[in-house]
Amino acid sequence: MSNAKGPDHSRRKERSRQVILSAARSLVAEQAYDKVTVEAIAARAGVGKQTIYRRWPSRSAVVFAAVLALSEGADGQSVALPDTGDLESDLKLVMRATAEEFADPSFDRLLRALNTEIANDAALAAEYREKLARPLDEAKKARLRSAQEAGQLDPDADLDLVLEVLYAPLFQRWLHRGGPLTPAYADALVDATLRAFGPARP
Amino acid sequence: MSNAKGPDHSRRKERSRQVILSAARSLVAEQAYDKVTVEAIAARAGVGKQTIYRRWPSRSAVVFAAVLALSEGADGQSVALPDTGDLESDLKLVMRATAEEFADPSFDRLLRALNTEIANDAALAAEYREKLARPLDEAKKARLRSAQEAGQLDPDADLDLVLEVLYAPLFQRWLHRGGPLTPAYADALVDATLRAFGPARP
Questions:
Q1: Could you read off the pLDDT of B26-47 as tens digits, one per residue?
Q2: Which domains does chain B have, with CATH numbers?
Q3: A64 and chain B in contact, CB less than 8 A
């Protein structure tokens, strides 16, 4: 049934979706978030407001879809963490890259908008965990399990807790602008995490 | 000059401030945050919108002041951490209380509103650090320094990092609704922090 309008219709629909999501991302990157309305997104995308509301129920939903679309097409492979056999240097590589990403101004506003939406909407928070956070966490945990097998991490460690201790300080420092996100800071988080969950626990 | 209108005027002004801030807090606790407008706060407080705008430039500023007012009158004493000489049990007491506070629904919405404002406004984030976060952090660091002197914590530990490793996982789990905030979770954070920064570092 939905194909009755033909492949051209589907392509146009998908193209319009991409134009709207791209407009949402560029507006969020440019403006104070409370100025980013559905009206403003529609104007930037060159569509009517109703075209947006036919697909998404609210600004929250459009902005969330806009962020989600950035990771479309990324398969499991692309989020896998490096595994050279040296947990400490692999994690430092990853955490330095993460710190750099959070410190990037064009990424910063988009991430703040996403966090505003998920902080205030439990359903979006669940969708965020399911579609964005969980696949990334699973990739990270696969690396940690490999370290457990190699005797570089406590085999009994709760890997969700390990990830929280590793990432949450960086997240909170970024969200509250509490301090610089330097390579040295990234390294210090890896060092603390490995002391907390390394194999040589007392 | 400002006293020319007399003490009655000052008292009325202060009373009106308290009524407005209390109205802001109760609205935030009851409603979706994007429904909490300056108009709604004014209506709840029984004042004109201009009465609010004469004091505060924006919704952000009123909500921030409303949260800040909760800790008015608290002196240094009241934020001091327990110091029984046993760092582990003192921190577990504090972290269990913190987890309980974050899990309290009436506190939850107010804290989410505060975090929304400071995430999207660098000036408010700085004011938050100065007026709310720093005094609390100083009290916590005083307890950690006492533990360093007692040989219960690495004397070279960066105390800001210690606080981040201890608190940020709880904060992120709460903000993203990523899991339960139980006493066992609070304890696990203290255990991980003490392993990371305890005196017996390799």
A1: 999 888 888 899 999 999 999 9
A2: 6-69 (1.10.10.60), 76-197 (1.10.357.10)
A3: no
DSSP A60-91: HHHHHHHHHHTTTT--HHHHPPP-SS-HHHHH
Distance from CA of A64 to the nearest CA of B (A): 14
Tokens at residue B151, please? 């040989």
CA A57 to CA A77: how far, in whole Å? 33
d(CA A155, CA A99): 27
CB contacts, 8 Å: A179 with chain B: 160
User: What are the pLDDT digits (tens) for B109-129?
Assistant: 888 989 988 888 888 899 999
* Interface mutation vs chain A, best among B132, B161, B189, most A CBs within 10 Å: B161
B123 touches chain A (CB under 8 A): no
Contacts of A151 (CB under 8 A, 6+ apart): A199
Q: Where would I find the beta strands (DSSP E) of B52-185?
A: none
